[in-house]
Structure formats: structure tokens, C-alpha cells
Amino acid sequence: MANQRVLRFVTPMVCAGIASLAAAQQPKMIITGINNDMAATGNGVSGLVNVGLTGANSNYSTVPIIWSRGSGYTMIPGTAHPGGTTVSCSADMGALAMGSPNTANWGSLNCFKGYDSSGNLLPQTQPCYIPAISHRWTQAGGWVSTGSLPRFPDPVTGRMIGGTRCDGDINLPKDISGNGRYVLANAWSAVATNSSGGVATGLCGNFFPFRYDSVTGAVEQLPVQPGTKTSRADYINFDGSVMTGYDLGQTDYDANDDGIPDSIEIGRRLCVWRNGVQTLLDTTFGAKDNAAINGPGTILASGATSLYVRQHFPGQSGVKLVRWTWNGSAYIPENLGRPADYVDPNIGTQIPFSDLWVTGVSDDGNTIIGSAQYGDPPPATTGLRRPFIWRPSINGGVPMDLQAYIASIDNQASPIFVPGLSPTYASSLSADGNAVLVTLFDGRSTCAPPVRSHQTGNAGIIYLDGSGIACDPPRIGMGPESWADTSGLRYGVSLNVVASGSWPLEYRWQREDPQNPGTWNDLDESCLNFNEFVEWEYEGVYKNQLRIGPGNFGGNRAGNYRVVVSNSCGSVASAPATVTFVTGACCLSGGCFIDYSFKCVTEYGGTYMGDNSTCESAVCFPVPADCFRKVAAPQNGVNIAGGSDGIADETQCVGDWDRNGVVEPSDIAQFIQAWSYAVANPGTPGVSLYADVDCNQVVEPSDIAVFIQRWVGGTTPGNLGCN
Predict the structure, then answer these.
(1) 522: helix, coil or strand?
(2) Of 45, 231, 271, 484, which residue has the fewest beta carbons closer than 10 angstroms?
(3) What percent of the chain has pLDDT over 70?
């Protein structure tokens, strides 16, 4: 069957007259486009966007941005480190934390390369690769570096130890306290000697968590167990007094899951720091490396291993969701069960549950979200992960699939999750447990067959009770940027939009009519799924990413593009983005062909002759003078031989083959290349006799000898080497 373009995004309308109180409390979703962290109210999100991504090989910056319900986006001045980071936000989004370049050169580490085996500083390389370091932002103070663990000279060797760099960072933040005062980060700490007793390089070393106090400027290393060299903290509560993470050390390993440890293995032990005191919560092999915390710091939640479950809950086994509650002197665990096995809706196959992680706990501890894994358990990466939710009032008090829960309380006539749209990750939870920040997979069908539909990702907030959530009109935080395609890659030009608005949110990509500026025409789906063997035009015309086909060097698809974003309470059009296809003549091995500039130089090793140049106009190999006046100027009559009449000028220097005014060794190499091309292409008009230096109408080995003779006598007047 031929490919067909279809649109299946129509949302059924429900008569307002039959809406019930239950319907008023149904969930709602607002698309945010970003999803690093969420404000405690559930009405704001922090994230990152790429600026300057104008081509497949362009240099671009990743910058922080925040979104607020009712007002939209605010770009925050500053740049995230290219090594990878996220933006954490305080409860009111008044403070942010992010890894940024160490522009202040904290610790003089920007060009530090470490020590050699004799303890001498290794020479610096230029340019230096500036590492990332944690920064805290406020409107009043801008971005301020947290610094890192103390760096100081070893009293014995004099070499610098303590805070250092490893690969791309000195440290990176993981979270910021709800009140915005504290940044939680993890840093490298160098030692003087390695495990063999030799000279340590001064790079990497141990890995420890710290808490940065923005009021005092103090960096406090969190305590670890005796002998621990690696520890990490991931979550911090509202006032900064409680943090969770892991401490690497000895764990009990139960190989056959009978509740009896078989061996001691080195593993990550789940731990909590409360008021500066570390407590290990789960010391079994396979324990989680963090636990989510509620705002007050009184409730923690995480997955627990089967051995832990056997040890603490008699008669129970297998991975379970565990909630720890502070009783004034200790955290007491409670078994909350686990999600049911997942049934794949496409093939009907049941996939067994294998593990879970927690990402959010409400302040009252009665809503918990996270990710469940189905299929092969960790460390396998083949398992399926889906977000889950737990509340004591739903599903019999055991965790359930988040999408399934949404479907159970949603408006069945107009559901949030239509076929092809699904949440893949739940990253944050509001303090009241009503708002869930999710990552979305958008595989909604726009083609027949559906498999040819363009698949994209997005992000949004799901309000479990949407009764107080008014329609939020579309807003654009980052529109499509102009793109110059120099590579012609299979997936084409990529135009993206970061937009927000109440769901359902519709995207419609348009192109300006080149013949009628100001007239914008809707685009049609090609539905060819990036088939590299055909010239497809557009994929994703109804999604937040448009792909424009590179085939036939862009065809006639260069021009101006925009996207119109709409929902039931408004519509907004992006600023236009200009798309160009950078192609021209590529000279290689005596031949010429048209291709993309980057491919010509990088992939083929050719010489790019300029944008929009043609093989008819390109002089891949210069034409010499002298007796070539007998040959009409080639290349469709374009004068490439030096004479005003389009015929070679015999006053030119034959020995100066490239005609740069200097007779030099490179002229011989270029002549040999042209001679080889002429021999390989006999009879080609205007080409085959280029190298006929002796003018006998035959390109032959003797022409090489004659040329060299002319070249050697290049400074002798009258010999036509150069007169």
C-alpha cells in the first residue's frame, strides 16, 4: 500500500452540560518542553536549551532556562558546561544550581595536567580544557562558583592534594535545598600516593560529597565510613539538614536469594546524612545509590534488595518499595510492595518486574513516584523502564504504573495519553504530591503505516487533580534556529521548538512561499521514515521537531520556516528560521563533482570550490599557457586560460602551472596530476589536451619531460617557462 499522510490528533469534544464533579477533578497536563527539576508548588520547571545549534557540525551553547505557569519562559544568563549537567531549582525557583566552566580558575586547575612518576608537574597543553565546577545562581548575585574540597600542598612531598579535577570536571551539583541556601555536589579529591605506594598523578583520586553554604561560603565534606574512598550524595531536603546517597564498601551478597548471605562484595550502600551524621540504611549488594526525601526530611523512599526485604520483613522477598520514617531517633522501614508485571499493550506479552528507583516523595509521604524496571534486572540495560506512582489510597496500597493510573482517573472521551504518547520518566514531584514532572515519548501516528511517523521527545507536568488548573496558552521559550546544512546527513536538517501550553498542544510547521514573501504554507508529511534511497521532503510537520530532507542537495527546500503552536486557549507563531544547503563544486583526483562542503573536505579529502560553484565554472586544475592557444577555452566558454578572447595567453609562464606568479616544486606535482587526468579521460573536449605541452595533439610521457624542461628554465627570458 502506498504511504498515506494521516492526522489522528483530533480530540473528542465533551458536552459541558454533562460534566460531573469527578470530571472536574480529572488530571490535566501542561507541556513545558524542559524537565530538569520542578518547583515545590508544581508550577515551575528548570532546564536547559541549546543555543547556536545551527548545523550538524556547529558549535553551540547549552544555557539554563526556567518556566512558570501563567507567565512562560525566562532565559537565565550563563552557560552550562559542555561535559554534561542539569539545572536544579529551589522550592520557589529563586535559586538554581548547575555545573558551569571554571572561568575563575578555582584551584589553578584549568591547565593542570597532573604529575609524572617522579612527582614533577606535567607540561600544560594549549588550549586548556576548562573543567566544570558547581555554581549557584540568584537574581541578585548571578552565578557564583561554590569552589570545591580544600586543595593544599602535601606536607611531605609538596605536591598539591585534595580538591582536583578528573576528565571534564572538578565537581558537579546534584541538588539544591528547597530554601536555596545549600548546594549539594560531589567532588574529586587527589591523594599523594597511589595504591601501590607510588606517586599519584594528582588527578581524580577519591570521590566525596559536599554541601556548599551560600551564606557562609563554607564547603563541608560529608562524613563517610572508615576506609571509604568513594561516596556520592544525590538528594537534599528543604532546609539542607538531610541528604541521601551511597557509600562504597563491603556489602552482603545473596547469590541464590535464600536470605542467607553467601559472600562479601564491594558495592554501593544506601545511606542518609542527618545533621552531619551518616547512617547506612541498606548494606546488601545491589542496594540503591540514593533515596528521595520529602521536604521536612522525615521520610525517605527507595527500592530495597530482596536480601534487605527478607531481613526486615519476614516472609517477604524480592525488590520492594520501602519508605523510611524518622521516629525521633532512627529511620524505620516500611514495605510498600512493588508494581505488577507489565503487559506490553502492543504484543500482549507480560514482562516481569525486576527493580525500581524513587525520584520524588511528597511532604506528607503519601505520594511517591519513580521508575520501575521490567525484564532483565540491572546491570543489564535491556530492561524496560516505566514511571510508577504509590499512594495508600490507590491500587490497594501498592505501586502501580503511572500511565495506567492516569488512564483510570482520566476523561475517557478525551484522554491525555492517546495512542503513541506515553510518559517514560517521572523526575520530580510537588510538595503536595499533585504535580508530576514527566518526560514524554511522542510516537503519535501521522502516517500510514504508523511506523513511518516521526518520533520525538517532550516534557510536561501532569496535575493529578486538574480542577484548579486553568488553560495555559501556548508560549515559545526557544524557537527554531536558522540552519546551514554542510553535511547532507541522512536525517536531514533539524528544526526544534521548546514550547509550553495546556494539552492537547498542536504543532504545525510552515514554509514561507519564496514567490510571495509573507505567505506561509503548511507542510505535508513525506512519511518515508528518513529513507536514504529516496528524496524525502519533510518529517514531523505535526511534532515539536521538523526534519527537512537533504536529498538532491536540498532540492528546492531552502528557505524560511516557522512553527505555529496552538491549543484551546491560544496560538503563537515562532520567529522564522532560514535553512540553507551549503553545496558546490568539489575537486578531487583530477575530477569534479557537486557535494556538501563539509563532506567534500572531511569525508572525501577534496577541495571545496565555494558555495554554489559548479563543475563548469570551477578550475579544479589550472590550465597552462603557451601553445595551448590551439585549444579553445574549455568549461562552456568560460575564460580559464588567461586570455581576453577565451584562448590561452602565450605570454603566461608554462612552468608556473598554478599561475600564482612563482615557479616552484608544487607546479610539477600539479602538472603530473593534470597530466594523469588527461590520460585517463582521452577525447574530453577542452580537457584532454591540457597537458599537451609539446603541442602535438597527444598527451604522452614526453609532455612531462618538456614541462620539466620549461620549469627548470622558468627564469630564462624567452623560453616560455616564464618570460
Answers:
(1) strand
(2) 484
(3) 87
Distance, CA of 33 to CA of 132 (rounded, Å): 25
DSSP state of 603: I
CA distances from 717 to 546, 607, 608, 609, 723 (A): 64, 34, 36, 34, 5
The residue with greater pLDDT, 723 or 214, is 214
**pLDDT tens-place string over residues 403-462:** 999 999 999 999 999 999 999 999 999 999 999 999 999 999 999 999 999 999 999 999
Q: In this structure, are residues 36 and 498 in contact, taking their beta carbons and an 8 Å threshold?
A: no
Helix (H, G, I), strand (E, B) or coil at 666: helix
Tell me how far apart the alpha carbons of residues 695 and 631 are, in angstroms, rounded to a whole number: 10
Q: Distance between CA atoms of 554 and 582, rounded to whole angstroms?
A: 9
Of the candidates 136, 141, 132, the one whose C-alpha atom is nearest the C-alpha of residue 90 is 136
CA gap 8, 601 in Å, rounded: 44
| For residue 449, cis peptide bond before it (omega within 30 degrees of 0) | yes
pLDDT in tens, 534-560: 899 999 999 999 999 999 999 999 999
Q: Which of 581, 499, 505 is nearest to 537 (CA)?
A: 581
pTM, two decimals, is 0.84
Query: Cβ distance 210 to 222 under 8 Å?
Result: yes
Q: For the chain, what is the largest distance between any 2 Cα atoms, rounded to a whole number of angstroms?
A: 107
261 with 252: CB under 8 angstroms? yes
DSSP state letter for 230:
B
Tallying the residues shown for the chain, one arrives at 723
How far apart (Å, rounded) are the C-alpha atoms in residues 150 and 165?
12
Segment holding 21, helix H or strand E: helix 21-24
**Residues linked to residue 134 through DSSP beta bridges, in sequence order:** 99
Q: Are 678 and 699 in contact (CB under 8 A)?
A: yes
pLDDT mean over 82-111:
94
Return d(Cα 654, Cα 369) in angstroms, integer.
Answer: 79
β-sheet bridge partners, residue 375 = none
pLDDT of residue 582: 95
